[in-house]
Amino acid sequence: xxxxxxxxxxxxxxxxxxxAQQFQDNIDVAPAEELARQLYDxxxxxxxxxxxxASAQKxxxxxxxxxxxxxxxxxxxxxxxGIRSVDDMFEVLKAGAEKISVDSMAVRNPDIxxxxxxxxxxxxxxxxxxxxxxxxxxxxxxxYEVFIDGAREATGLDALDWVRRGEDLGxxxxxxxxxxxxxxxxxxxxxxxxxxxxxxxxxxxxxxxxGTVEHIADGLTTGGxxxxxxxxxLYSPRLDRNVGVRELKDGLAARNVLMRPYLT
Amino acid sequence: xxxxxxxxxxxAPSVGYALERLGVDHRLVTTAAELDGCDxxxxxxxxxxxxxxxxxxxxxxxxxxxxxxxxxxxPFLGICIGLQVLFEHSDEGDVAGLGWIPGSVxxxxxxxxxxxxxxxxxxxxxxxxxxxxxxxxxxxxFVNSYYAAPADPGHxxxxxAYGVExxxxxxxxxxxxxxxxxxxxxELGLRILAAFAEWTP
Lengths: 264, 201
Fold this sequence. Notes:
Chain A is built from 10 helices and 12 strands. By secondary structure, chain A is α/β, with parallel strands linked by helices. An 8-stranded parallel barrel of chain A has the order 1-4-5-6-7-10-11-12, surrounded by 6 helices.
């Protein structure tokens, strides 16, 4: 049986993992390479790495850090941030990533999804979305709007319209990242996660807000997601207590969520 | 020396990092000349069957690969698309494969979430040196929209369920191939790569 997945998310600045709250106030956690090794040893199912300042600084992604992480991670590794073209994707894949995450750039130039899927297969292209609850209004029938550039810019796009378009263009997975819930440790936005899971036929990844094993279980059951992105719960210095992968998997198993078993 | 076939749609670097971790001698192979001196080969793969076949063709690797693997009989490991291209035909892009193993490649049903992405269990159907240290029912990482259907059930080494029971490891003489990403399946995947590095068919 196909299991659900736990994905550790790294927001990387200058080779170091940082932790934000609602896309702001990043605080330093650890060097990306060191945290990646530690989480691989702790049997995380997957790692996603965002070079969060590449886009704003109009520079290419930090390939050296991507390479150093890839050398120690023998589980799937997704990379995003500052990717503008198929050639950029190619460089990231050659550095050792399996999947490319596109977000703001895909809103500006949706054709990058199609071109990436054509060159590397749709399984390679992850469409990450930053969504915010704005209420139902003209042009936003779902009540959720897509934002870009670190949640700073509204796009006028309806979240469900955008993910359907992303799937049609060739995205193989879709990350639903709630701006309202990001870094709050108060739980995923289950409503939009479930709505996206119902709207498309590719895998859905819940993101933003997991603070307890209960939240993760909710995202993977009520939210209808195939995978859960976690970060604060694993390593945020803002939380009183961080939880390891083994304890999370035990907790999910106790809630009847099928996970890859922890090898002992 | 293991040669890891490196072509545009592949993920040879990830396979290289895994072999490095295992301390196994290897090199990336992009041209026919670089096959010299390799006594076993890995064909990794991500992406689409047609892109892979076209890319191997453009690199002039199809014939030399066939000579080394089918003629000389050196150990060969295919991974993901590197499994699918071994068959005679793929429904993906309606493309002819290498035809080293009889059978075809089909698409998963549309009522499933496709591609299948994630960890799934692999049930071993018989003994094989390459899977000797992999536990029956062990989990491996899959990313696939298509699956192989070998014509000869004797070539099925492992099976996995996703809507259908499909062949997740195929083995025939000096050829073995996994539908899952052995290089991205944690310690269990590394065990398969380590066993392949030692295998004498």
